Amino acid sequence: MKYCGVIVNNESIALDKLFTYRIPENLRGFVEIGQHIKVPFGKGNKLKDAFVISMFDECENTEKLKEISDICAREPVLSDKNIRLINLMRKRYLCTYLEGIKLFLPRGLLKGKREKIKLVLYSNNELHGKYKEEKYASIYNTVKENVAKYSRNELSKEFDYSLSSINTLVKHGFLEIKEQRVNRVDERTFPHLPKKNLTMEQLIAIEEIMTSKRNEFLLHGVTGSGKTEIYMTLVEKMLEKGKQSIILVPEIALTPQMVERFKGRFGKDITVYHSKLSEGEKFDEWHRVKQGKVKIAIGARSALFLPFKELGLIVVDEEHESTYKSDSDPKYLATEIALIKGNIENCKVVLGSATPNIETYYKFKRNFWKIISIEKRVDGAEMPEIELIDMRQELENNNKSFLSAKLYEEINERLEKKEQIIIFLNRRGFSTFISCRKCGYVFKCSNCDISLTYHQKSGMLHCHYCGYKESSTKICPECGSNYVKYFGLGTEKIQDEMEKLFPKARILRMDHDTTRNKDAYENIYSDFKNKKADILIGTQMIAKGLDFPDVTLVGIIAADLTLNLPDFRSNERTYQLITQVSGRAGRGAKEGKVILQTYSPDNYAILYALNYDYHGFLEEELKIRELMNYPPFGRVMMINIYSENENMLIKGVHEFSHKLKAYYGGKYNILGPCPSHISKIKNQFRWQIMIKGNIEYADAFKIKNMVYDMSKSTYNKIKVGLDMNPYNTL
Ligand code: ADP
Ligand code: ZN
Ligand code: ZN
């Protein structure tokens, strides 16, 4: 082929297209689709990274074409299938080619990262002559016992040998230095875990998945129904067929048990791939996968894009979790990509959850895809009973504490029986709202339109959005009175109060603030597991995947916290969160119980959650979504517009919205413009426009270009962000 279409590594949206280059004689026959190459670009013909997307022999206007300069690596970095997926993502999530391509590559690649090489020592000729003396012999023998393990410096440091003696031995050929590729990832191994005898339900599910002609499966099973065992057996079956598997988990740091179980079962065939890895570590793991050294990836959503050649299985565990939606461009949904990828690569896709995402469930029903339900826990235990406490009633009974009388009593009972307790509140900090009772002044962050949270440990008021801190005060900065009061409740305050209420109990807290340091999460987790504490207080961090057999009571302090957000998914979230937190109780032989406190006892999400009635909730929720034309019945396109210059922003937003309504007002429902729920973050003012309806991707694409034109021309201080079916509308 004589010509190729390439995507050049360039951030500009205007350049989001294929550029045609000529393939010079000397490179013909060497260029392949998906290769990483260098091309001269722009006026100065600066060399830039680029990727070959298409190749052809015929082309018009060839006189002006530039030639590609070089091929960076023979082996393509993108496969045909990857490129198909990138094209689809560009359409569906309104991203650029380059944003799509970058998902498939380790960041280090474009920055010229190389594999890490260490110069290690080998023992060579036997010692003779004067080199047999002790000082040389001990060095020589150490190397002989540890061939290819140490570099010269390491050896010298570790055993206190003189570097010059080591060098002497090298110089005379007794020791030899060779290059060795080292892996930057710290390999932790876990004790071997034997297979379990599978239950009938597990066997049936596996049989169904392995033999069905279709690729899509929704595994709807209560917590503890043995889904993870099913995943592991599927992975094993794929290994037998020489195929690889990707297991996605919502957040690696919060699922240590999952990694432990997989590593225990499959050893070092696994990579654990997530955002906490350094650039170098990611680079190495990506190469290990590419070279076929890794058969299984467990990871966050980014693991979906690892370069496996013979993918057999993708599992998305806890598929309803919002961490599967990317919060940076492209704002893709990993569950959706998993299904598309399953189609492109012809591999099995298993989405697992006790509370499937409403849109997922609906999609499976509509397409007649297979939904496998497991309604019983493996050990036969029942899901714990959930008792609802109306907190308004508590107030009437003159109980002003955050603990209802019932929860207080149940906690005491468990403490006496030496059983463990989990207390859940989805908000951290001490007081979450500080205001002056005289003039009504509210303490807010000066960079963000967000009320500050008091943290007792630091004695400061914190902004949870930008990290701003100021010292706490009793004097109102507005009126000078000393009527400043601290309202609201966070996990820090709960711990403080519970320590007073239950002085004998040993209490741990797990939230963002207590798990900042490395290993803090694992320490809290293992302390609680080893019964070094009676009560664990935490945010949604404790809702996921934890399995503590001695927990017999879960207290949900305020079940309505997620309800009052302006988000069409808020009821769904509430349902999921209650079900998940409740699943932490009664996982062992002892019966569990959940006390759910709320100020909204009539809310349907809460009522259905009380009975674990997923289908009841689903039906009710679908009615509302349909009525309001929200997903899965319509699409929502969110246009977020930001600027530090508020006047320009308001002017620009209105002008744009006028134009948008003139074009599309008849076809779609256009809401706004209005300030976002959080109207300022980090000194950026924020407005939004929401488009609802059966939005066609072609229209979405045109709208995208309209917004970018606006932000580029007149309003160059305005930034825009687009989100199809957003998970965060605040
Ligand atoms: P899920 O992923 O659905 O929450 P798990 O796979 O974690 O369920 O299983 C819950 C518990 O039951 C785990 O402790 C697991 O080791 C155990 N388990 C799963 N399958 C079996 C089995 N077939 N026999 C015995 N124990 C099992
Ligand atoms: Zn005041
Ligand atoms: Zn702030």
From TrEMBL:
It catalyses: Couples ATP hydrolysis with the unwinding of duplex DNA by translocating in the 3'-5' direction; ATP + H2O = ADP + phosphate + H(+). Zn(2+) 1 binds at C436, C439, C476, C479. It comes from the Bacteria. Residues 208-374 form the Helicase ATP-binding domain. GO terms for cellular component: primosome complex. GO terms for biological process: DNA recombination; DNA replication initiation; DNA replication, synthesis of primer; double-strand break repair. Its EC number is 5.6.2.4. SUPFAM superfamilies: P-loop containing nucleoside triphosphate hydrolases. Binds 2 zinc ions per subunit. Residues 471-625 form the Helicase C-terminal domain. Its cofactor is Zn(2+). InterPro entries: DEAD/DEAH_box_helicase_dom, Helicase_ATP-bd, Helicase_C-like, P-loop_NTPase, PriA, PriA_3primeBD, PriA_3primeBD_sf, PriA_C. CDD domains: DEXHc_priA, SF2_C_priA. Keywords: ATP-binding, DNA replication, DNA-binding, Helicase, Hydrolase, Isomerase, Metal-binding, Nucleotide-binding, Primosome, Zinc. GO terms for molecular function: 3'-5' DNA helicase activity; ATP binding; DNA binding; hydrolase activity; zinc ion binding. It holds the Pfam family Helicase_C. Zn(2+) 2 binds at C445, C448, C463, C466. Belongs to the helicase family. PriA subfamily. Initiates the restart of stalled replication forks, which reloads the replicative helicase on sites other than the origin of replication. Recognizes and binds to abandoned replication forks and remodels them to uncover a helicase loading site. Promotes assembly of the primosome at these replication forks. Component of the replication restart primosome. This is Replication restart protein PriA. It comes from Oceanirhabdus seepicola.
